[in-house]
Amino acid sequence: MFDLGSSLRDARERKRLTFADVEQVTKVRAKYLRALEEDDFATLPGATYVKGFLRAYAEALGLDGQLYVDEYNSRFVTGDEETFIRPHRLAPPREVRWIERHAVVLALAAIAVITVVVIGAWRFAPGGSSSKVPSVVAPVHTPAAGRAPLARLVLRARGTTWIEVRNGSPAGRLLFQGTLRRREVQRFTAARLWLNVGTPSRLTATVNGRTVALPGTTTPEVMVATANGVAALVKQ
């Protein structure tokens, strides 16, 4: 066990760096860096941000960022981590899911009716043959009811940034957590991906082969990626 704040302060002072110097490197605001040195974690937006800032600050000083995150988890994190968006608010209402399922069923029924009408018209049209029917009907491919399309997300680093990627939500399976450096690439595939990005402006992203816009900010952002693209979540 060691003192997080004082060890960061000692390392910074040994390197003769000011808060402004570290802010320039990490893109973390000076007031948050000062709060870390004073162990004033309540000043920061939440546990996820504390860990991201700790990692970035420690690595900027040449320290082991994961060691600081582990020490913070063991001493200050109890129970579920704080999140900005509650997962159940992001799920579609039950009425919407019911409408979507029934819309698919109605669409399939309409396709079947149209197919029967077309075949009947062909058989009994003048010059047609009532004894001949098409031997092959092309299958209609539709997505399974209630199944969301997959998002194939590719993240490319234009500079050093810390990211965390989970399947579905903040409580979902951890897919990646660490620091991406310039030109490094990470790929993920899921119906819904939850992302916590330390410096979004240092990433480029594509979803299913399409380039998508990320927030051009230098402060951490929480986002969700689906087949439709990437959207930043509103902080609460």
Provide a short characterization of the protein structure.
The chain is α+β, with helices and mostly antiparallel strands.
How would you describe the overall organization of this protein?
This protein is of the alpha+beta class and 236 residues long. The chain has three domains: 4-76, lambda repressor-like DNA-binding domains (434 Repressor (Amino-terminal Domain)), CATH 1.10.260; 89-147; 151-232, Immunoglobulin-like (Sandwich), CATH 2.60.40. The chain is 37% helix and 21% strand. The chain is built from seven helices and nine strands, in the order αααααααβββββββββ. It has helices at 4-14, 19-26, 30-37, 47-60, 65-76, 87-90, 94-124; strands spanning 151-157, 161-167, 174-180, 185-190, 193-197, 203-207, 210-212, 221-226, 229-232. Strands 3-2-5-8-9 form a five-stranded antiparallel beta sheet, covered by helices on one side. Strands 4-1-6-7 form a four-stranded antiparallel beta sheet, with no helix packed on it. Helix 4 (47-60) packs antiparallel against helix 5. The longest helix has 31 residues, at 94-124. It is elongated and about 90 Å long. The relative contact order is 0.12. Mean pLDDT is 81; it is low at 81-92 and 129-142.
